[in-house]
Amino acid sequence: MKVLLVGINAKYIHSNLAIRYLKAYTKDLNYECENVEFSINDNVERVVSEIIAKEPSILGFSCYIWNIEFIERVTNLIKTIDPSIEIFYGGPEVSYDSEEFLKDYVGDYVIEGEGEKTYREFIELKLKQKDGKNVQFEKVDGLYFRDGSEIKHGNKRKLMDMNEIVFPYEEDENLENKIVYYEASRGCPFNCKYCLSSTFHGVRFLEIERVKRELKYFIDKKVRLVKFVDRTFNCNEKFANEIWNYLIENGNETRFHFEISADLLREASIKTLSKAKKGLFQFEVGVQTTNDEILRNINRHVNFSEIKEKVEELKSLKNIMQHLDLIAGLPGEDFNSFKNSFNDVYNIGPDELQLGFLKLLKGSSMRMDADFWGMKYSKYPPYEILKTKDISYKELIILKEIEHMVDKYLNSGKFSNIINYFINHNIFKTPFDFYESLAKFYKQKGYFDRNISSQDYYKVFLEFNNEFLKEDSSLLKDIIKFDYLVYNKKRGLPTFLDKSVEKNVEREIKKILLEDNVIESSNDIYIETFKYNLNEYFKCGKIMKKDTYIGFYSDKPKWIELEGICN
Asked: Which of 62, 98, 403, 471 fits as disulfide partner to 144, beta carbons 3.0 to 4.6 Å?
């Protein structure tokens, strides 16, 4: 009996925690089990051929809103090729209508909810069945199965003690260039209506010394990024602070990502976090909306002012990257309210700002309230909102276009001075107005409908300024050139930016830098001339026309002003 546990990830660099848990929890059983991982960007036929080539007798799939349609295509093809291969499904996408799901999809079993114990008991029965013994699958809590034309199931499975979970990563596992997922707790203390965590109450934690030992595994392997999947990592202040302290003392090269509730941060946590080296931690904060009435509509009993205070306090530490989330389409929120939320959060100055769209997940109480709020949503995964009584489909499409602008330009971090030029020059009343106008320009030019080059993403700003705003672009051109050279490979400038430094001047500057041991090789730095003193402009907004030389290091986003180094 060979079992193949299949993870279909959102991206190649992701790792699948669920299938690792199942394999680890049954590693003492006498059966062959293998994990394989693909991404939704893979070719379906290639995935099918690789699975079939491994000759499994049982296949298991970890199912989510973003991969279920891909899995459906894969499993349909597998059953067509070899009907004898048994298939089971698990994960949040199949756990709230398991019987209906099994009626509609090919396959033989569904594991409902928390899967480790159910999977183990299922495998134990399959091993007995393989030995010719009679088995009763209805005795397995949390398991749905086909029995002829009927769908049968066992009782609901009780939640397990977190410390029964087996560490899911193997000693010799290659995690290089992977985003690795880890959880120190399950559950959430809150009851947000759109979230599946609201369907059960209470939070369970791993024993804290065990967590430290397991985090040491990632640190020793020099994993690039570990993402905690805990719904609210800091819901237990003492637990969070002890883990943060441990990582501050032992973290080395690994970065750790946490979803936190900012309003729960207390003085002790801020003091602890202030000791972290820059880049060790990144936080994701679900603001969702800054409208307190809308927060109450979704069962979030917090005021935005409390969130803002703590986010700004973290920002003042200057050592933790903050990613703030908003959700469009929440019950009762109209376009103008969302616009205000966007501006409120943007003006805090997060490192990243994500515009998400409400998804009415299976099992969430938001689905039950849909009619009351006039919510219409897609019946296809990921069940995204289409309109409500307060916001139209057309308005949500505008927000989707703005989301594209924010993700590409703000969140990439490669256009910060350009963006500040438009927002801080009173060209637009609010940040939202800037991104909305930029999105309108993109649409007019047809850029949403085709791929544009990395250079063209910079060129767009000149077109936008000249054609849409009809403003002078002399200073803007210098700023675009600066941002381009800071964040891109220095292999010559795009033609629309004009290389202007003279060769003899460039050689003289590099000679001086070599003599002063500023650089080790003339290839270490790229020299360019600017018409404005950008250092003065970036520091205090002063616009001073003055030819200036700036050197850009070739291998990192760093620059030095060269004023006075060459006559």
From this structure: 98
d(CA 209, CA 230): 17
CA distances to 160, 322, 453 from 317, in Å: 39, 11, 36
CA angle 64, 18, 146 (to 5 degrees): 70
The rounded distance, in Å, linking the Cα atoms of 434 and 383 is 30
pTM exceeding 0.85: yes
CB neighbours of 72 closer than 8 A, spacing ≥ 6? 105
Which residues contact residue 327 at a Cβ distance below 8 angstroms, ignoring those fewer than 6 apart? 194, 288, 289, 356, 357, 358
552-to-111, 418, 456 alpha-carbon distances in Å: 55, 17, 21
CB 445 within 8 A of CB 463: yes
Contacts of 293 (CB under 8 A, 6+ apart): 332
**Rounded-to-integer distance, Cα 417 and Cα 424, Å:** 10
Spatial separation of the C-alpha atoms in residues 340 and 350, rounded to whole Å: 16
Q: What phi and psi values does residue 212 have, to the nearest 5 degrees?
A: -60, -45
Read off the DSSP letter of residue 359.
B
Cβ neighbours for 268, distance < 8 A, ≥ 6 positions apart: 237, 241
Structure tokens at 462: 């000149």
pLDDT in tens, 398-452: 999 999 999 999 999 999 999 999 998 778 999 999 999 999 999 999 999 999 9
Both ends of the chain: CA-CA distance in Å? 79
Give residue 349's region: left, alpha or beta (phi > 0; psi -120 to 50). left
Beta strands in 241-313 (DSSP E): 255-260, 281-288
